[in-house]
Design brief:
Elements: H1 2-23, H2 34-53, H3 64-86, H4 93-104, H5 115-136, H6 141-164
Helix pairs in contact: 2-3, 2-6, 3-5, 5-6
């Protein structure tokens, strides 16, 4: 009889602990911000329109016709990056313990910045590099594609992450 009672007590205790732990939501991501998602969608569209306009290649002689577009896109994505980074990522015991473990293993700690920030930084880096190249040489369609590929990947990453936050 004593064994049955202690087994039942243990089972109830385990179920109680599971219930308490499952009720504790660990928040590892920043809050959803519709303005960021809207900005990403709008500026992604503008970027794809820009790529469509230069898809056949460019001539350095007419760079001045594209300069304003480069500057607007770069400025827009830098602004979105700043907004993304300004949101606090919740600090919690899970992240602190994980970082403690990573430090003990001489590994990089978990970032306290949204992953979309890094993706947006890559978009800016690629656009700046493309702008600098466009000013100095004629660019072929293949060269345009070399810049477009990483930008598409980074935009996809940023939009996916930011959209996922709306749960």
């Amino acid at each position: 009889m004593k064994d049955i009672t202690s087994t039942a007590l243990r089972a109830m205790l385990i179920l109680g602990v599971i219930a308490v732990l499952s009720a504790c939501a660990v928040k590892l991501a920043p809050e959803y911000d519709k303005a960021i998602v809207d900005g990403l969608k709008e500026n992604s569209k503008s970027t794809m329109v820009f790529f469509a306009s230069v898809s056949g290649g460019t001539k350095k002689a007419d760079y001045s016709t594209r300069e304003k577009t480069y500057n607007e896109l770069i400025g827009a994505f830098e602004a979105l990056k700043i907004i993304s980074e300004s949101r606090p990522i919740p600090s919690n015991k899970v992240v602190e313990k994980a970082n403690e473990y990573l430090r003990s293993r001489n590994q990089a700690e978990m970032s306290m910045v949204a992953p979309s920030s890094g993706a947006l930084q890559e978009v800016v880096r690629q656009l700046v590099s493309m702008r600098e190249r466009d000013q100095t040489v004629d660019m072929s369609a293949n060269m345009i594609g070399i810049y477009k590929g990483p930008i598409l990947i980074s935009l996809d990453q940023a939009i996916t992450y930011e959209s996922f936050l709306e749960r």
